[in-house]
Every structure is written in C-alpha cells, then in structure tokens.
Specification:
Elements: E1 4-10, H1 14-25, E2 31-34, H2 54-57, H3 63-73, E3 78-80, E4 84-89, E5 93-98, E6 101-112, E7 116-117, E8 134-136, H4 137-146, E9 156-158, H5 162-173, E10 180-182, H6 194-200, E11 205-206, E12 209-215, E13 222-227, E14 230-235, E15 239-241, E16 246-247, H7 250-253, E17 279-281, H8 292-311, E18 324-329, E19 333-337, E20 340-342, E21 350-357, E22 361-369, E23 372-381, E24 387-393, E25 404-408
Bound molecules: flavin-adenine dinucleotide.
Flavin-adenine dinucleotide binds at residues 10-16, 34-37, 42-44, 47, 49, 51-52, 84-85, 113-116, 118, 137-138, 163, 166, 248, 251, 283-284, 289, 291-292, 295.
Length: 409
Amino acid sequence: MNLNYDVIIIGAGPTGLAAAQTLRRRGIHNIAIIEREEHAGGVPRHCQHPTFGLLAFKRPMKGNKFAQALIKRVGDTQIYTRSTVVSFQPNGILTVSMSDGIVEMHAKRVLVATGVRETPRHPRLVTGLRPQGILTAGALQQFVYLKGKKPCRNPVIVGSELVSFSALWTLKNAGVKAQGMIESGSRILAYKPAVLFAKAMGTPVYLNSKITQIGGLERVEYVVVETAGQSHKIMCDSIIFTGGFVGENTLIRKSHLDFDANTGKPVTDQYGHCSDIHYYAAGNMLHPADMGDQCYQEGLIIGGHIADDILAHHHKLSINNTVRLPVSIGSSIRFSVPACIDLSVMNMDKTDFNIQVKHAITGTVKVMAGDYILYEKHHRCLPTRRILLKGIDLTKIQPDATEIRITVV
Ligand SMILES: Cc1cc2nc3c(=O)[nH]c(=O)nc-3n(C[C@H](O)[C@H](O)[C@H](O)COP(=O)(O)OP(=O)(O)OC[C@H]3O[C@@H](n4cnc5c(N)ncnc54)[C@H](O)[C@@H]3O)c2cc1C
C-alpha cells in the first residue's frame, strides 16, 4: 500500500472530488482521497431531490446522480473508503484509521474538505426525556434513500432552512406527512415561497415557536410547542432537527493549525492555504452550508492553487504569518472566507469573499483596507445564506494596511 502521496484529500464530497479532478488535469496523479463513509460522494449521495448539477453539468440533477457523475470525473484516483483521518501533524503526516488498522500517511500537500453536519438535539438545549425517534434531516435522508426504510409515521420538523423543506420532500417520498414545522424566528429561513410547499403538504408552519417539552418514554409521543407565549401539544412519533449547519472541524480543533475559536474554522487565505504550508481547506467545512454545485466550483479552484504550489519551481518552505493580513468582521457577521490575505504571493489580483450574517440585515456591505474602500454594495442579507462579495481587488491594498475590515451598516 502506498503511504506517500503528492496530495491527500480528506473527504470525498463535491469539494474533495473537484479538487482531485483539477489536480489530475494538471498532471498530478499521485493523489489519494480518504473517506470515512462506505462510498464516496459526500452529502449529495443521500439527497434525491434535483437541486444539484446546474453549475457543474448545466442541468438539474438528483444528488445521488450528481455524486456518481463527480466520482466518474476523478477516474482511477485512489479513494480509500471506510477510512477516517483521526489526526494530522506538521509536515503533512496523517494518522488514518482503516478497516485493517491504523496507518500513517504522508503528503506534500493535504486538502481538508470534511464538509458539514447539522446541529442535533443536545447542543440546541431542548429539555425533556430522551426517547427514540429524534434525528436530523441527513439521517432521515439516509434511512429513506440509502436504506429504503421509513423511520417515522408522523414527525415534526424543527427549522425552516432549505434543508428543512427538503426533509419535508423526503417525507413526502416516503409517504409520511409532517405534523408541523417549528421555527424560532419571525420568518422562515428558506425563500418565502417554500411555505406554499408546506401548505400543499398540509403541514402547518409555526413561526416564533420553540419546543419546550419532549414527551414519551420509549419513543417520542408528543412535543409541547410554545408559540408567542402560548403552549400547545403536537402528537408525533419523531422530531427531525434540521439545519443549524456547523463545519466538520473536529480534526482542525485538535490540530496544530490556527483556527477561529468560535467556529473552529481554520484560518485560510485567498488560496485556501491554512497556517501550515502543507495544509489547505475548502468547501462547506469553511462556509456551512453552501450548495453542492458551489462547493464543487470552489474545489476546482482550490485544486488549481494546490497544483500551482506543487508544480512551482521554488516551493515556499513555510507560511509567513506576518505577511498574512487578518480579515476582521463586524458584530453582525458570522464569518468570512478567506479569513486572511497572504500578501507575499500575489499571483491572484482579485478574489471573492464569502460571508454570512448572524441575523437578517439589509444594508451596505463595506470591505476596507485601512482607509481604502475595496468594496461597497447594498445587500439584503439573510442568515444561513452565502453573500458573495465578488472581485475584490487585492492590488488596491496599501502597504501600511494592518487588517481588512468587513462591516454591514
Ligand atoms: C442534510 C443536508 C442536506 C443538503 N441538501 C442539499 C441540497 O439539497 N442541495 C445542495 O446543493 N446542497 C445541499 N446540502 C449542502 C451540502 O453540504 C453540499 O451540497 C456539499 O455536499 C458540500 O460538499 P463538501 O465536499 O464540502 O462536503 P460533504 O459533501 O459533506 O463531504 C465531506 C466528506 O468528508 C467526509 N469526512 C469528514 N470527516 C472525515 C474524516 N475525518 N476522515 C475521512 N472522511 C471524512 C464525510 O464523510 C463526507 O463524505 C445539504 C447538506 C446537508 C448536511
């Protein structure tokens, strides 16, 4: 078994597969992808709604078909499935747990593309008993689409993001009607017309609402929901907690890489480079949860940066953190990708910033480098949605700038 690669990619979702595709196109074939699931493909593998493919294949595709098509694009790339990277160290050394034991692998460059997970019940601090029947939208999809099972008969859905409505769709395909959708905010987080879909399914949407009690000893029997100060009971056998996406950053938090203490995201520059020269990061682990196609596009680009790096005549030996300009964000902003700009390698004049806000806010998004305005545009920003600040001209950054500052006012 080969243990030494030019590039190792952690995660065989759209981001990792896209990066592998570019690397191969650039002539770098000594690559491996490590995937903890039984099959490659990432989240789209268990999505059977046609919300994928428009950018990558110019047509709407179901997630599972999209995943298969992406796997085809990486040809005979070595993909180790049922293999989990359990830690990594400086110099591109990875500890990988495989079916026949633990191995140490080495790569000149590593791309961390570990994706997202939804927030399950416990971090949401929902009180009550702990019966069976509590799951996430991703788990629901896996039961219905990958295992052909019907995990519930009359569930409630918590959340109102796009993925919450796709859970409604999954339930419809399984012949199950949801008893309600529960959203703590005053509007749904998905596009407003999605409410019509819930209506058509006969599922009421409860805004300004939260679950205050879960009833049932063995299995969920009911939930008590508080809506605008009034409590009411909904009989149900399951609760599907949807969305509340967080990056899969467990590996990062226990690594030597610089990361943001609030989000666990590694500090990446405009090339996706982390604070150690051997490591890159990309995809939904940085910006939960952009669409599959968007992650695929990003993977193609970051794969190109890694190829430039590997093929360079004069390798950079280390990241000089003193020439990385930090990106600071205003209090209404949740995160920015990139989180810093590397001024020592300016072979890219312009870059996009991907930001998300904490609460709905309409205003002017401003990006400043010192006193210089790099970007200024009116945006209607909703939480959980990407806001792309396009084409920011990095050549305009003055040498005396000490940070890039992004605000919404
Ligand atoms: C429930 C759910 C529904 C969604 N529905 C849609 C939708 O309908 N349309 C859409 O466009 N987008 C949807 N998304 C967004 C989705 O995340 C993106 O479509 C896309 O999958 C992101 O690509 P990625 O490669 O960054 O991450 P992922 O697809 O999440 O892939 C990351 C991969 O890394 C693997 N991995 C993680 N840690 C390790 C480790 N330590 N070792 C080895 N492997 C590891 C994971 O098993 C996974 O396969 C959904 C997301 C979720 C969670």
